[in-house]
Amino acid sequence: MPPEEHRKEESVPDTESRLKICVLASGSGGNSTYISDGTTSILVDAGLSGIEIERRLKSRGLDPEKLSALLLTHEHSDHSQGVGVLSRRYNLPVYISKKTKGAASHIGKLHDHKLFKCGYTFMIDNLSIHPFSLSHDAIDTSGFTIERNGLKVGIATDLGIATAMVKEHLKDCTALIIEANHDREMLINGPYPWPLKQRIQSRIGHLSNSDSNHLLNELKHDNLKHVILAHLSETNNTPDSALNTVGKALQNTKIKLHVALQDVCSQIVEI
What we know:
The chain is α/β, with parallel strands linked by helices. Helix content is 25%, strand content 25%. It has a single domain (20-270), classed as Ribonuclease Z/Hydroxyacylglutathione hydrolase-like (Metallo-beta-lactamase, Chain A), CATH 3.60.15.10. The strands form two sheets. A seven-stranded mixed sheet has the order 6-5-4-3-2-1-14. The model is unreliable at 4-15 (pLDDT under 50).
């Protein structure tokens, strides 16, 4: 069943509300994304220490005290490291699937948690959240669409293949955060052991730059404003390679293409 709605306070919907997105960190060293409509502010994942996430929020003028909730895509530590600390420090409910909660004992005690199930939409104050399944080597990896007043953000990182279901959920988005993990040639010729290379290229691994190019060719439309490339490998990719390969899908469009980095949080993207 879908989780109960979390409401810090009742608010009147504002048809002029816009969504702000800030990728605090992205990559194998830690992942976290901030999304807010100005009233409701959430984190999708918290894969850095609590202190570092606080620092990055404040570096962009964002107040961790005003967070409403935290969503967790899956249990891997580069997405979950700071979840427990932030939940306890700021009294945040953590939205998490039942299987992921069972696999994420390392995050420790939570202030509160709400169980979600992929395929069931739920609300966090003004934000409509729809979780959907991704093909990745965690127990129950989720992507999300987050909607408010006709604006829709799609988040799909950590997936080995973009299935028809994933494409269905990501269509008609105003902004997309999608994976561009590796350049295939760099991966094959790089230092990783062969079993790890096979895992990364598999259906439960990560999308390559060319995979993301093909995906965007199917998803692009006139109302898509921003695409943020996420989870770049520091060993098997470069921002320039990702931009050049994926950017070919967006030629002759007005869609703005960004790259999220590991060590520096992004600028705030507003839609």
